[in-house]
Each structure stands twice: as C-alpha cells, then as structure tokens.
Write a structure and sequence with these properties.
Layout (H helix, E strand, L loop, with lengths): L1 E5 L3 H11 L6 E5 L2 H7 L6 E5 L7 H8 L4 E6 L4 H9 L4 E4 L4 H24 L3 H4 L5 H14 L15 H11 L1
Parallel strand pairs: 1-2, 1-3, 3-4, 4-5
Helix pairs in contact: 5-7, 7-8
C-alpha cells in the first residue's frame, strides 16, 4: 500500500517514516507541507496521512484540495471538536490525536483499507443507477458515493428532507447496498 505522510514537524515526520518502515506492506512517502504533496500525489497513492495544523495550507484545506480522490487519516496535536467534525464531513476516515502509538496508526490504516475495499466492491455490485434513480447530477453522484461507503459499515443513517424528496427511495437503496 502506497501511503503519503504530510507533516510539517520534521521530528514527527521522520519518526513516522522510521516506525512505518518496519511494515513491509507499506510504501511510505513523506512531504513537509500540503503544497509539495499536491504536486506529487498521483493515482498510485492509496492513502494520505496528514497533520491538520500546517503553515501555508492547513489539513482541512488540503483535504478539500484532494477532492475525495484519496482515503485520508488526520493526525493532530491540537484538536478541536469543530475541526474533527469538519474533517469527518469532508470524508476523512480517521482522526488521531498526537501523541499516539504506531500500532494505533496501523490499526487506523488497516480499518481504512478494509472499508475502502468493501465500498469498491459495493460500487461495482450496485444495481445500475437507471433502475433506481431518474436523472443525474454531481450532487446525486456524491450522495450515492457516500451511501456506498457508509452501507458497508455498521453506521446508522438518518434521512432528513421535505415530503416527496425521495427519502424512502434512498432508504431502500441503502438497505439493498448493505
């Protein structure tokens, strides 16, 4: 698994690089800031681990710039509930507080990889969109992608909306995808 670690603190970056080198199944590439990472990230990377507080472009801006192309785990020493919620809403898979044990990070990586594999299976097995939904839009595509990722977990979902917007149709789709 090819992993990018984006961390501005050189000591933390090198520590993670050294600790992760013990795991042969991970190919680690480190970057000192988000802008450098954005220049070099390509489709061969499967996961991005990023600090949230960095000069220039912070972790939240970085996740937005990634546009959902990569699975992301956030690590931070200065967490606020608002930042954690914002990052999760952007699709971040895990949020770890520094200092943490390397085993905790490895567990988060494995959990993220498992969910990503399951959601890829679900996306490929999902019925043709034309059977369930009339029309197409970026918002609908984003929602269906989010449903596919959530459907393979044990997470509960609450559907809210005005009468007639299709909550029952989405509920049936979630049920069939899980």
């Amino acid at each position: 698994m090819k992993i990018a670690i984006v961390e501005d603190d050189i000591n933390m970056r090198k520590s993670l690089e050294i600790a992760m080198s013990d795991y042969d199944k991970y190919e680690i590439h480190t970057f000192k800031n988000a802008r450098d990472a954005l220049k070099k990230l390509d489709d061969t990377f499967e996961l991005v681990i990023s600090d949230i507080n960095m000069p220039g472009m912070d972790g939240i801006e970085f996740v937005k710039a990634l546009g959902g192309k990569f699975e992301v785990i956030i690590i931070t020493g200065n967490a606020t509930l608002a930042r954690a919620i914002e990052s999760i809403q952007l699709g971040v898979k895990d949020f770890l507080l520094k200092p943490f044990e390397i085993e905790t990070l490895v567990t988060a990586i494995e959990r993220t990889a498992t969910v990503a594999k399951k959601s890829q299976k679900t996306l490929s097995q999902e019925p043709a969109r034309g059977e369930n939904f009339l029309g197409s839009s970026p918002a609908l595509d984003q929602l269906l992608n989010r449903i596919a990722k959530a459907a393979v977990t044990d997470a509960s979902m609450m559907l809210l909306g005005e009468s007639g917007v299709g909550k029952e149709l989405f509920a049936r789709h979630i049920h069939e995808s899980s």
